[in-house]
Amino acid sequence: MNQPRGRCITSQLRIKSSETPFSGADGDAGDWIDMDSGFDGLADEVFDVEMETRTHEPVTELYSGASANYGRGYTFMDAFDADPFSSERQHNLFYPFSSGAEWKFASWLANSGLSMATIDECLSLDVIKSQRFSFKTAKALRKLIELLPSGPRWKCRSVKTESPTRCALQVFYRDAIECLQHLIHSPSNNGLIHFVPEKIYSAADRTQRIYTDWLTGDRAWELQDALPDGATLLGIVLSSDKTHITQVGNRQAHPLLISLANISADVCRKGSTKSYVLLALLPVPWFVHPNKRLRGVLASRLLHQVISVIVKPLKMAAEVGRMMSDPVGNLKYCFTPLVAYIADTPEQHVIACVTDNASAVSMAVSNQFGDPLRCAARTMSKTRQLLIAVKRETRARNLSSYFQACRKRQLNGVASPFWLDWALVEPSSFLTPEVLHHFFKMFWDHDRKCGYQHFPDGITTLKQTSMRLHQEVQRYIVGVVAGGIPQGALTAIRALTDFRYRSQAPKLTDADIAKLTASLQEFHNNKAALMEAGARGSMDHWRIPKLEIMLSVVPSIRSMGALGQWSADVTEHAHIDVIKDPARSGNNQNFDGQICCYLDRQEKCQLFMQATTARYLDLRGDSDDSDPSDGEENMLGSRQVTDYFKRAHALSAGDFPTAPRPYRTFASSTTTFHLASRPKMTNIDVDRAAELYGLPDFKPAMADYLARHHHNLTHTIGGRWRATPDCQLPFDHIQIWSKIRIQSYSSYDLKMLLLSQGLHVSPPTVNWPFGRYDSIIISRDGNKDWLHSGLHGHDVVQLRMIFKPILGSQSLLSNMYYAYVQRCVTTSVDQHAGMHVLKRALRSTGERVGDIIPLFQICVPAHLIPRFGQKANSQLNSHSSDELSSSFWLNKYWTKELFHACS
Known about the structure:
By secondary structure, the protein is of the alpha+beta class.
C-alpha cells in the first residue's frame, strides 16, 4: 500500500468529540476510530499535494545551422557486422565461442584479473573439462579473444630526444580520430552526446542564463561561429598525470586520456561511465644531463614533442574538418579543437609553458596571486609573442641560455608548445579550474591549517590523504572552528567554503554566479583577519597559485559550463582501470606493452558483449527493458542508481499482489521510503517501547496526534499537551524499525535521482550508550516543497522511533507508518558562520518537545554540529555529542544538496 502523499484521510477516520480529548484513562478505545465498512486499504487512493510550481520554464536557444547531416555513415552495429567473421555469426552469434554460455564464462575469465597459471588450473578441473569448452588453456582463450572485433588499434614508435636518457624511449598510442569515433559510437553514451551549442535561459525574458554542459557556455558558441555552416563541433578533452604503478622501484606511467566535451556533463562526472579512453602512454624519461633544472626543461619539451605527434590527426581535423559518423549513422562534417585539458597545477604549468611563479591562465606572477582582481588572460598570441622575443635573443638548441631568456619572461623553456599550431585553441580557456586539486587540495594544504590552527595538536597525523578525507574535513571545518577563532577569520573561511560549494553546482544561473563572485570578494575582504590570527604562521603573504586560479572560476563557468565536468577525480579514477589494474596483471616486465595488450583484450570483450547483447535483443524483437534499479552494472557497463520511486510505483500499481501490507516501499511527492520487510521488533508493548527508547511522553504524544490530525493536511509538531501520560490508545502493541532508507531527486535537476540514504534509530546499546538517533528535516506546511522552498515550512527534528500500530488489517492506523520525533527550534542565521543556529525545543517542565508524525512528512537527512564555543565539553564524543549538547549548527555543508537548499 502506497502511503498518502500529504493529505490526511478525514473521511474514514472519526475522532471521538470532546472538549478536552484524552484527558484521562477512562475513554473507550472503541469510541476512537470508526472505519468505513467499504474501506479496502489505501492502495487505490490518490493523494495529491499542493506544491509550489515554477512560474517560468527554461527557454533554450539552439545555434541555427549547426551539425548538418551529409549522407549515411555507419553505426556501432555496422562496424560489428563488417568484421571478417560476421558470416559465421549468422549461424552462431557468439563465434568464435560455441555458445553464449561459453562466451560468458570466457569473458569472466578474461576480466577476472586471474593470472594465466590460475586460469590454467581452473580449466584443468574435471567439472570444467566436462563442459567441453573450445579452449583448454589460458593461451588458447587469449587466441580466441584476439579474433573478436577490435576497437582503436595500438601503435608504437621510438622517440628521439635532445639529450641522452638512461634507456631508449618508446611511446604507445592510438589514432586520436579512431578513439573519438569509438566514444561517439559507444552504446554507453547512447543518447548522451549532443552536437549543437545552446543558450539556456531561466525564463522567456532571457535575463538569466543557465550554465550546465559545455555546449551551454559561450566558448562553444564562439567556436561554432568560426566554423563553416553545417559543421559539427567536437570539443576535445585531454588529461594527463603521472601515476605510480609499482610500490617498489618508483616505476611510473604517464597516461594521456581523451574524451569528448559533447558528452553530457552528468556522464562526465561519473567514473563508472568510462567516458575517458586511454589515447597514449607518454614516455617517462630519465635524462642524464648534469643540471637538474635543465633536466626538467628537457622533460617538458619531450612532453610537448610527443603530444604534438599523437594529436596531429586532431590538428588536421580542426584545420580542415573530417567526416565522421554520429551515433545513429549520419555523416557529420566535424572539427576538433582542444577545449579542455585536465591536469593538476604543476602539469598545467608545463602545458601552459610557464614557470611555477606565474599563472598558467593569466599574466599574474607570484606577488599578485593574492590580489582580488584578475590579471589579463595568458592567451596564445601573448605566449607566441614571448617565444618570438626569446628566439630573437638566443637559439633553442642552446638549452641553458634559452632557459635563462625564457625565465625572465616567466616561460619554462619549451620552444614549441603542442597547442601553438592547433586551430581554434586558447590555453587560457582550455586550462580550466579543477575541483580535485584547486579546491580540495588547496583546502587541505591551506584552509585546514588556517582553520585548525586553534587546535595545537592538529587534526590528523596522516602523511597521505585522499580526496574523500579532504571532503570530509571540509564538511565540518566551519562548524567546528566557529567560536574558537576570531569572527573575521571565521567569515573568511566560511566565505571561501561557500565559494567552493557554489562552484561545484552542476547547474548555475547568472544569479548564482553573482553569489559566487560575492563569496570570493568576501574572503578577500576578510583575509587580513586570518593573517592577524596567525593562520598563515610565519608567512606574511598570500602567494598561493590555487588562490589566483579561483579568479578564473567565474569566467570559466560562463565560457565552459559547470566545473564538475572537468574534475581530475574522474580521470584519476580512470587510472585504476587503464593503468594500475593492467599493470598488476602482468609479470612486472615491459609495463607499457603489457598494459596495452591487456586493455586491447578487455576492450574487445566489452565491445563484443555490447554488440551481442544488442543483437540478441534485436533478434528477439525486444528492447533492453531489464530493470536497472537493482544497482548492479548493466550490460552496457554503466552502474545505475537504485530507483525506489520505481519500486514504490510498481507496488502501488499492484504489480506485486503478494507483497506484505502496508507496503515497505512507498513514496510522497518528493521522497520515497524503504523499510526492511521484517521490523526490528515485531510485537512490543507500547509502555515497554516507551521505556526502552526513553520516551515518557510517547502515549500522550500519540493521543494528541490522533486528536489533532484531522484538522491539518500536514501534521504540525509542538504545542501544549492535551493528553495525559495515562491516556488510553486504541492499540496496545506496535512494530518498530531501526532503519529506513529515503531517496529524493536533486534540487539542481529534478530528473536526477540521488543515491538513497539510511536513517538510523536505535535505543541505547553497549556500542551506543545514548542510542543512535539521526536528525532529519520534516515538512510542516503542505504548501511548501523542500526542493524549492528550503527550510521555509520545514522543521529540524531528531528521529527517535519508527513504528506501526498493531490493529486489525482493516484499521487505518495499522496501514500507516509513524515516527516519534523531538523538535529543534531554528533561530536566525549566524552572519559569520553562515549557518542556522538550532536549540532543543523544551517544555516549561524542561522536557524535550516530542510528537508523532506520519513517516511521509520526512524530507531529507540533516546533520548537526554541536556549538563548541571557546572550549568544548570534554565529555563530548561521536556517541554523546547529540545528547549532551543543547545548541547546534545546522551543517549546510554536509551535502551539496543541503547547501543549495539552505543558502
